[in-house]
Amino acid sequence: WGIKRLLKQIVMSSVYRQSSRVEPQELKQDPTNTWLARYPAHRLSAEMLRDNALATSGLLVQKQGGPPVHPYELEDSFKPSKRSSGEGLYRRSLYTYWKRTSPAPAMTTFDAAKRDVCQVKREKTSSPLQAFVMLNGPQFVEASRQLAHRQLQQTPDKPEQAVLQMFRLLTSRSPSAQEQQILLKLYEANRDRFAAQPKAA
User: Fold this and answer.
1) Nearest Cα residue to 140 out of 109, 168, 180
2) What's the confidence (pLDDT) of residue 200?
3) Closest Cα partner for 113 from 45, 52, 67?
4) Does residue 180 contact residue 167 with C-beta atoms inside 8 Å?
5) pTM of the entire predicted model
6) What residues contact 19, with CB distance under 8 A and at least 6 apart?
7) Helix (H) or strand (E) run with residue 129 in it
8) CB 140 within 8 A of CB 133
9) For residue 64, with 0-12 CB atoms within 10 Å meaning exposed, 13-18 middle and 19 or more buried, which class applies?
10) Left if phi > 0, otherwise alpha if psi is -120 to 50, otherwise beta: which for 69?
């Protein structure tokens, strides 16, 4: 048997390509997903999470090949490193420079592999630090700022449409009426706050 043929058969199978969306009938027939009625939901890896944030904001540079780059996080990780500029900040995580003894803190927070020992399978943890990195990490802050700027340029006087489009872009689904209402209230509260305090924006 050939490994290539086996991989092709697995990848082209309906089970491998199915959605993680849960249909009520499937949930009733296979609640624990024993028979693989749906794809199990899982968190993105550290590199995919960063790349996804950059892609949704429109900042991701798709260029292939080239030397390693030094994004924001590496400057904090080891001091001799100097941050890249221009498109080097927005290259895919695949091209990020790695120092074996000192990986990027933002990546290790999301369980990126440590390079000083062999790791067969990555751990998947949930910690408050992950939320803090998503809220305060320079790469994520810049990506969210760029996403908001781009969306407000496309729909300047239509907050409902802006919220709907951004929600769809980030989650690949439409928001429920309750979710949309909460997000609109948050948008209006922040708009009023920053209009009164432009320096805080």
Assistant:
1) 109
2) 81
3) 45
4) yes
5) 0.76
6) 38, 39
7) helix 128-136
8) yes
9) exposed
10) beta
Q: What is the largest CA-CA distance in the chain?
A: 69
Q: What are the sequence ranges of the domains in the chain?
A: 1-41, 46-130, 155-200
Say yes or no to pLDDT of 161 above 80: yes
pLDDT digits (tens, 9 = 90+) for 105-144: 888 889 888 777 888 888 888 889 999 999 998 889 999 9
CB within 8 A of 193, min separation 6: which ones?
200
Q: Which tokens is 25 given? A: 């009938």
d(CA 14, CA 88): 38
If one counts every other C-beta atom within 10 angstroms of the C-beta of residue 88, the result is 17
Residues contacting 75, CB < 8 A, separation 6+: 81, 82, 83
110 near 49, Cβ under 8 Å? yes
**Tokens 């990555």 appear where?**
122
Q: Give the position of tokens 């928001």.
A: 175
Residue 12, token pair as written in the block: 């082209």
The amino acid that residue 7 corresponds to is L
Which neighbouring-strand residues pair with 91?
61
- What gap in Å lies between CA 57 and CA 87, rounded to an integer? 14
Could you give the CA distance from residue 139 to residue 182 in angstroms, rounded to a whole number? 26
The 8 Å CB, 24+ separation contacts for 153-160 are 159/184, 159/187, 159/188, 159/191, 160/184
